[in-house]
Input
Amino acid sequence: MTLTHGLLAAMIVIALLAHLLVRWQTGDEARAMLTALVIVALGLSGVLAQMWWRGVIL
Output
């Protein structure tokens, strides 16, 4: 498994966690955790895009 696959797998896991979170919890806790998951997902996608831009991954 390459680093690209690892980052993509992490983003998929984050999306699944967000989906389960929305189903299981309501209110402020869900919003706070969902916001944190979105921030992490954006960070991972930013890392992936930067690596692609620099030619580390194709």
